[in-house]
Amino acid sequence: xxxxxxxxxxxxxxxxxxxxxxxxxxxxxxxxxxxxxxxxxxxxxxxxxxxxxxxxxxxxxxxxxxxxxxxxxxxxxxxxxxxxxxxxxxxxxxxxxxxxxxxxxxxxxxxxxxxxxxxxxxxxxxxxxxxxxxxxxxxxxxxxxxxxxxxxxxxxxxxxxxxxxxxxxxxxxxxxxxxxxxxxxxxxxxxxxxxxxxxxxxxxxxxxxxxxxxxxxxxxxxxxxxxxxxxxxxxxxxxxxxxxxxxxxxxxxxxxxxxxxxxxxxxxxxxxxxxxxxxxxxxxxxxxxxxxxxxxxxxxxxxxxxxxxxxxxxxxxxxxxxxxxxxxxxxxxxxxxxxxxxxxxxxxxxxxxxxxxxxxxxxxxxxxxxxxxxxxxxxxxxxxxxxxxxxxxxxxxxxxxxxxxxxxxxxxxxxxxxxxxxxxxxxxxxxxxxxxxxxxxxxxxxxxxxxxxxxxxxxxxxxxxxxxxxxxxxxxxxxxxxxxxxxxxxxxxxxxxxxxxxxxxxxxxxxxxxxxxxxxxxxxxx
Length: 526
Prior knowledge:
Blueprint: E1 13-17, H1 21-24, H2 26-37, E2 41-45, E3 58-60, H3 67-80, H4 86-92, E4 93-94, H5 96-102, H6 108-115, H7 119-131, E5 135-139, H8 141-144, H9 149-162, E6 173-175, H10 182-187, H11 204-214, H12 227-235, E7 241-245, H13 249-252, H14 256-264, E8 268-273, E9 285-288, E10 297-300, E11 305-309, H15 322-332, H16 342-352, H17 361-364, E12 369-370, E13 394-395, E14 414-419, H18 435-440, E15 445-448, H19 450-456, E16 463-467, E17 472-479, E18 487-491, E19 504-507, E20 514-515, E21 519-525
Parallel strand pairs: 1-2, 1-5, 2-3, 4-13, 5-6, 7-8, 8-9, 14-18, 15-17
Antiparallel strand pairs: 10-11, 11-12, 14-21, 16-17, 16-21, 19-20
Helix pairs in contact: 3-6, 3-7, 3-9, 6-7, 12-14
């Protein structure tokens, strides 16, 4: 997030897009709700009528996979009405003229044909966003999990810069991270093309610094494989061994039938986790690890706040800390990693990570700190881009609408989108071991609109078969006011009816994220 969670309440207008905030981020959603109770404007743009729409001034329902079109439409209206922030554009950005030309065709009428959003509703949101003294954008995986996910995010950045809603309280382009410590994992170089703090592996200076810190030579300037690319390489026989830590791809990966074949082709699979999962069942070796409450260390949350985590309970005797397991394996492979504690590891993190350099455990004992924090005298940075962007001036990107990789047709007439429910988390590795949560949400369901159910002649509770070009599952139908005609929602938590048997493995070419949010399906009675 460019801004903080608490900062949401200072916004005059909040635009929530592609985020079922109350179910995926229930704590953070409280800040949004409180803002509306204070009279702040809230607009929701989402294919489903999510719970948060009850608090919104208006809900706009786009067809899944059409986000670039409506974002360009908002910018078209703002420029046509001369509501853009000219001072911000002049002083802080470049390439505005190219953006202006590119969005000229995205009239309200043109956008309505692509997205289904009424022209007058688009105009209302555009004017509210541009005229607000401070407007904040909140987005989640409804924006990123598309073949054009990177361009979706760039488009939101264009919109924010166009109105100068960045670098000050109550503004920003704010991604809501989907899992615990995702931000911290990325900060630590948990991506194939960067070291810590997003230093490119292609940067000779960064490689030299890491080689010196690790007392090695010859770090490769070539990026590694993204996790989604590893599955395909395994299927092709080009990847022979895989070490999976704290992930359950046999539930979370798209096109599970293909993923299963890929993992079964490996010569050697190691899985390190806190419980048995669908993925551990395929493993040659399973290494038991500790959960968050059984260890010391730090997490970095969605607002870039680095926080201490302290051991609260004793772990099972056979389980070990992740870092201890990794260090032992490294030693047996010929590279000694002689850390004595997670505190020692954090000291190294600070020494090689510019944005963490001023953060110490002693400082974190008092309060969390937002990176970047370059020195110990620095207080941290709750709000990014206050005076300039990382690259200097912000660059407006020219981006055109591209349709999803797979659209409905006569054989598969409905669109499937997937996501979470309030009572379960991700693949259910932890939550489905809690009796109370299983009572509240015991099984998978196929959420459908009343209009679509009537067309099919089906009612709530009917067991149905849902098929795509990749697989088939069976679950109970659930007619819901959240659903809209033409789009079906299925949560992906339930192994007995795994939604990812159906989803499309086509990737965003930049981020390598699959298109979980749009695929074509058909529904039949079992």
